[in-house]
Amino acid sequence: MRLVLMGAPGAGKGTQGEVLARRLGVPRLSTGDMIREAVSSGSDLGRRIAGYYEAGDLVPDDVVLGLFGEAFSDPASQAGFVLDGFPRTPAQAEGLDGLLQSVGLELDIVVTIDAPDDELVRRLSGRRVCSEKECGAVTHLNMLPPGSGRCPACGRDSLSQRSDDGEEIVRNRLLVYREQTRPVWDYFLRAGARTASIDGIGSPEEVGRRLADALGVAA
Ligand code: AMP
To answer: Which whole-number Å values give the CA distances from 120 to 36, 63, 198, 200, in the listed order?
Structure first.
């Protein structure tokens, strides 16, 4: 299955995308992960794009298309994929179309996960991530004993806040989503893509069931 997962920051694309990709046996391609990796590597490219990332702004389209194109050229992606956080502008959506056309493939469906802004801010400002590379678990302050920095998945004292999850930056990311990414949904509608919207409120399991229903796959 070739699927685009859309939704504002905090809507649950990462959580749902990971579970779904595992279930379908296809790669989850997250441009956010690619960008974090580039930034933390300290490479020339990483230094060039760090400012955009830290401010919650979009990294320029040519850079993102370059990173995505590299991941997409991996033969594992030709059998199917879950796209998480890409495309985020109409220019990126056109770039994706071009890449797909060049290998004779089409998207199966574009799904957007909806959630209101106050819920997104609550989720993102309380989000904590495990900085251990081989763990990388994502959790929320609500799930942790007060003051604990211990990762519930690997048990190490390695939880921290993502640098772009501070409240002010989160507000900017939501604005950027509305102004620059929402038009991608209209782009797909105009292009006649199969689309579905699901309610992102509820437990990850509940949202996962709605997603599976929308896709017609087993939950
Ligand atoms: P995410 O982890 O998907 O929330 O992305 C985190 C940040 O990475 C975003 O706020 C942007 O700065 C950058 N980013 C991720 N995906 C894209 C994209 N497709 N286009 C531009 N910037 C992106």
So the answer is: 21, 27, 15, 10
